[in-house]
Structures are given as C-alpha cells and as structure tokens.
Amino acid sequence: MPQPIAAAAQPLADRLRQAEQPVRLIGHYDCDGLTSSAILARALQRSGQRFHLTNVVALTPAVIEQLNSEAPALVLFTDLGSGYPELLAQLKAPALVVDHHLPQGETPPNVLELNAHKAGVDGNCEASAASLAFALALILGEANRDLAPVALAGAWGDRMYLDGLVGWNRTIADMAVEDKYLNKTSRLPLAGETLAEALAGSLEPYLVGVSGNPAGAAEALRELEFDPAAALGELDAEGTARLADWLVLKLLEQGAGKQQRAQLFAPQLDLPQWGCSVEELAAMADACGRLGDTSTGIAMLLGSPSGRERAEVYAREHREQLLEQLAHVEFERGRAIQHFRGDNAALKGTVCTLALGYFLDRSLPAIGLAPRDGKLIVSSRAAPQLVAQGLSLAEVMAQAAGACGGQGGGHAQAAGASLPPEKGDEFIDVVDRLVADRLGL
Ligand SMILES: [Mn+2]
What's the gap in Å between 29 CA and the centre of ligand 1? Predict the structure, then answer.
C-alpha cells in the first residue's frame, strides 16, 4: 500500500478500534459509495464492531440534522464529505471521512479525513472511495484482502478503468490476481446468449442504432453474414476477429472516444468467487443505488444470495432504461456546453457519460438536469482533453450552483449540483458562461 495512504488511514483505523458504541456509517448511494460502505461494514463486523449504515443520495443539511438528532458516538462517512466541510462542521459528533472527491476548504476539527488528494494520490483515477476503504480495511485486518473484488467494482463504478487501472487501484488488482480472486481474460466485452442479444444489449460499447434495438442488431449481423441466433459462446477465432473489426469501425464511424475504442481490447476482469466480472459486479451495485434500493446493493455485496438475485434483476432493468434513454436523448448545444433535460434523475449522469464517450461532440461538456424531491439535480461530464485544458467541472458546478441558490461539487471530469427547481435556465446560462471563460471560447 502506498505509504501516504497507509499513514493517512492509520489514525482512522485506531479511532475505529477504540469505538465502544456502534459506528454510524453514512455512504454515498452510487456504486463506489455502496462498495466502500460494504467494505467498511464487513471490516467493522470482522473486528467485532457494531455499525448502523445508511446510504444517501448526497450529503445535505437534512442528513446532518438527522445525525445530530441521533447523537451517535462516532460517524464514518464514505464517498462523500470532503466536498462539504461547512456541513461537517455542523455535526456535533466526531467523524471520520473516507473520500476521493476534491476537498473544498479546511477539514473541521471534529473530523479525521482519509482523502485521496490529501494523501498525494489522484482521486480521479488512482483511488476511489472503495479503494481507500479497502486500504483502511487492510489496516484493520489482513483477512480483509478478500474484499479486493468489491474495491475494484467501486473503482470501476467511478470509471477508473478507462486508461487501464493505475496507482493504488492497479496494486489492488495485482493483489487480487495473486490471491486468485481475479482472472484477466481476453475476450470481446459482450454478454448474452445469442449474437443478436449481445449486440442489442450492449451498453458498453454503446452501438448507435444497434444497442437497445433488436431489429437493428439482427440486421447488422446479417450484413456481416452472421446468423443473429448463433450462440455468442460458440463464435470461432475467425468470427471473433470479424466481429471485432466491425466493432472498431462502428465505434470510429459513430465518433466514439479513443478510450472507449481501446476498451474493446482491454482484458476482461473475471471474479471466480463472484461468478461474474468486475464490470458486472459494478453494474449490479450501481443499479441497486440508482433504482433506490441500496439495502439490496449492500446485501448483495456482503454475499447474500437473495440480494444477488434481486441485484441481477435491477441490473437488467437499469440497463434497459439506459438503452432506452440513450436512443432518444437530444442534447441542446450552447456556446460552450451541451445539455438535456430529463425526467429521471437516476439516469442523467450515466446518460451524459455514455453519450459523451460514444457519440457526442467531446469538445463540449455534457450536462443533464432532472427533478428529484422538489429540487433540480444536475450531472455534468467532460472529456479528458477538456480537463487537460484546465476545465474543472467541480469548480464550475460549485460556483454556478452557488450563484443560483444551490450547491455543487465533485471531480474535474464529473461533477454535480442541486438547485431550486425554477433555476434551471439561469443555471445553464451561468455554466455556459463559466465554461466558455475557462476554455477561452
Ligand atoms: Mn466515488
């Protein structure tokens, strides 16, 4: 483990070992939030500590109020916290934070923080909250090495695989290979019984006109002289090569990014104990969170067979919703951004990510807005080249939301905000202006 992570994690481990009351665990609701929560829950359980876990959509004043009314002895936040020091300061209990989001301001005195960025690790690609939780779990006990697959699923959920795993994430994958929890295999990133099902159900790669469109998939296959009903598992070497060539051309033609094209040939990360790949484990956790059933996500990640069954159903349902939205979404172009308004707050971030990666103009950030709980929730995504040009969506979201009476933050390449419902148009104007300024447009 990198020394700075170990040094930053040690005081949190010491504090957890001393806890005499149940630890109040609060995690984010997405894949990285759920996986990091499950890792910490398991590690606490194994050290004989009790805990009470809740996964939330965001750290808000209401969450802090609720915690203050519960008066826990110790709170442990994971995959959230670092972006909201002013809220943490309002918490009456002492708190531990495990996070990889960009820190905003000073850590309040009641908080011990394990933040990737503060430990000298790039929290955008080298360590997710789940990878940091795994580091903390390893300090709590070597037996927690078996949680490496869950940590990798968290990193996957935050899309840290696009340039291959690097940094601490890479070390975790190497440990998992050594322990035989992870097998790297070479095959196309497609799943399904038949070729037609595999293409029509493919979210990554997203194939315009084919994904989510069984007739389009069958037609494409017939043009390639494949039998659409042929079994994917029985494709021979020649057929695999021909299908791979077509996928490369198809992605080029629809304007997919270099990283997305490279993913076609990346090794598949199989988890024999889980009977699925890292990608599939991440998709199940993500779907549980997005569909509002975080308990099932945690149960599944802790190894519950009934949790697993439900999570598989959610993963299918969520994928179908995404395929449906991606087929119909229309982005409106401004000067420096492109945005869409949807009705499903749980989908908009992934829709932006996939649209940007697979078919949108990557010279502009993509932004999605949708209502939830009386607010307007925003997701924003930028291609790597814009981040290299100095754009930070975390800053843009924080600043624009601040100007519109909301709050925002996150990462340079992926950030979010929540706003009063009537502020959507004003917010889009402010974001467009801020991004145009940063990019010199
Ligand atoms: Mn995360």
Answer: 10
